[in-house]
Amino acid sequence: MTAVASPPPAATEHAVSGLPRSILFLCGQNAIRSPMAELLARRVLPASTFVASAGVRTGERDPFVDAVLAEAGLSLGNRHPRSLDELEDDYFDLIVTLAPEAHHRALEMTRSMAIDVEYWPTADPTTATGTREQILSAYRDVRERLARRIAERFAPLAASPPRE
Q1: pLDDT tens digits, 92-107
Q2: E strand residue ranges, 28-114
Q3: Could you tell me which residues come within 8 angstroms of residue 133 by beta carbon, excluding any fewer than 6 positions away?
Q4: Model pTM?
Q5: What are phi and psi of 118, to 5 degrees?
Q6: How far apart, in whole angstroms, are the C-alpha atoms of residue 71 and residue 75?
């Protein structure tokens, strides 16, 4: 009689819930939308879910992102924008694209792979003009829309308590 090892608890949790084990948020420069989505998803998903973000190319860190994340009690810390080429791992169960350019790149990348790709069209807040407060309002809108979409998509599946 041969003993059969049972899968680790995290693997079972993901299989039962339908929750992806690894998620990549992808946008144009990994400066605004995808790092926001990464932090917001980490707040909702169990620690056993690997969450990352990247851009089609590397952008510059945006101080408005830091400001609106701080309002929500989140911080990028020392993290800087990174491109797909800079990722340590290139296999994800799900890639969520937040910009048309990122969506096209993800579809090209995954053409022969069993990876789900979802397109969540997300406005680029850098197009906002006006006062500092008006510009911050555009960034807050992106943050809130992403938070809502992440909660709708993943919270019902997250069986474990979210990470702290």
Answers
A1: 999 999 999 999 999 9
A2: 50-55, 94-97
A3: none
A4: 0.85
A5: -120, 135
A6: 9
